[in-house]
């Protein structure tokens, strides 16, 4: 019902009854409950139609905040949104994720979370939940099984965070960064609501978030979307994972930069963009090669999943003017469906905070699915 | 409710109410409707428990038949099952699918369907529906967009069949063969009910059927599962599709046989099995190579989708003793998740009729989802 009001507000109780098939008494009682919890409120508006004028309902949610965070190799990000998705806060902090211990990371994330929560509390908002994006394999129980670029193995981040925050009274979830980024696209992006989406993180690591038939598909153990380690070329270069010819090794951002210091990647990518804009032939060649290899990976995902769109995130976004044409040509050539199955390849518009924003989206999804805050 | 009775029979109306959350009056009225339609019947059994003894319900469905068919390059298959999945009939006919025109195929499928329907009618069964498996790209509207091995383009098989059968009064669906085969595995196979399954057809063409979170995932246009044309090796051999290094070109059954006549494939595969059993070194080498390349394809699907199991069908089944170990070793080596994400690789036990059986499963799914026969 909350989802219906979000999508159709302002709407009347009769509209809800008509659409959900619930009878009017049930709708009235459920609406009263949502109003009690301040998730929905009545507006002064009435519908201009024949018959008794109806009181219209809209999302309230001003008393609530949903928080998303991201831990990555060189930064922490925090985003807070209200129930309608309005951005309340968006912070980014440098953080040495590649060298910090898990305990140091927990302390840093807990400190950042505390500051966000304090801000929300000061603004008289109740925190609905926190979801943290991590670049790694996350088990279905939320444990970080392995996050290679952070050097983590078997880290119970959600549990450790709850302890560090002394059982804060709101749920804490942990999820793969690509999975959360695709949720952000699905809820807040220009392709929002598109049922079949693949999102590719464009970092030194490459991961995919997969939405099919409107839902995140995590696979049996929660390990889906490991597109960075599909083999693009058995004769290709060695990957950091020890395997050969992985997508990450031929089309990850690491191919385009010389530094191994994550904190330096952003400025090196800025430099690549500058050279490409200046028409430097070697740079343009390299971008076209990386684009083609990226296209090979996209073609594999497209042949297997037939998505409506593939969205490129992270550092792929500033490089999209050069990567995208080569990637699209290659992907179309290797796709068995005519006209690439109608799939489009686009650059994300959600910025570097996509995964954190997806964390906030994930919390809102939980509320929409019935995990309501207490009245 | 039908699904609940199938999974939990014998069960009482109170069991249904408790599990579905519907109130007892609603359950009674719905059960009365299902009894009217002869989908459910009461048994003499009563539950041995404190309180008033309850009348137990079981699936009836003896008055119904669900029919699945498969059109392939060298045969037509027909399967009929009752509502509980009991096999009523299983026929296989030689058919020159690779050379027949679509019109000839429609006539042959219609003739076979008519014979199956007549048999069911004679047995006093009402036909719930027919679903036809085709090895090709099927649009979401059921049109066969392209079936390369049949030489079909834009064939409205469902419409043409309905015309040939003179509007038979039951629905006719058309679906990709791998999609139907994975539905058969999910409903009738030893891994039935496993939420995340990938099925690979082992024919001259290789296709995948993908079930994630318990449902077939068809993609945006219905073209998912085209694993046969993912590029395994950019330096690999030319594929019949014109591309290079496709999975089908390195690990399709065509690699193991010399004939181009589909009708000869089965006997040639028998010969390969015979040589492998005799320990012929060249044959064993070739099977190991094909197995490894198949493992590369499986690794890609596993990294991207994290299924609980990958099931090998078609001609991969008789060859499984030699293909499977090499495929499993390679897939495990190329999988980023530890211990291959808990995924198992197994040979199908449903035989060559898997896709047709999946057609029957698809019709039963429609009934379970509420497309009930008239009382």
From TrEMBL, chains A, B:
Transmembrane intervals: none
InterPro entries: ATPase_NBD, HTH_MarR-typ, ROK, WH-like_DNA-bd_sf, WH_DNA-bd_sf
Single GO term (MF): DNA-binding transcription factor activity
SUPFAM superfamilies with a match to the protein in the record: Actin-like ATPase domain, Winged helix' DNA-binding domain
Superkingdom, natural source: Bacteria
Name of this chain's protein: Putative NBD/HSP70 family sugar kinase
Location of the HTH marR-type domain: 2-42
Native organism taxonomy: Bacteria, Bacillati, Actinomycetota, Actinomycetes, Streptosporangiales
Keyword list, A-Z: Kinase, Transferase
Naturally occurring in which organism (per UniProt): Nonomuraea dietziae
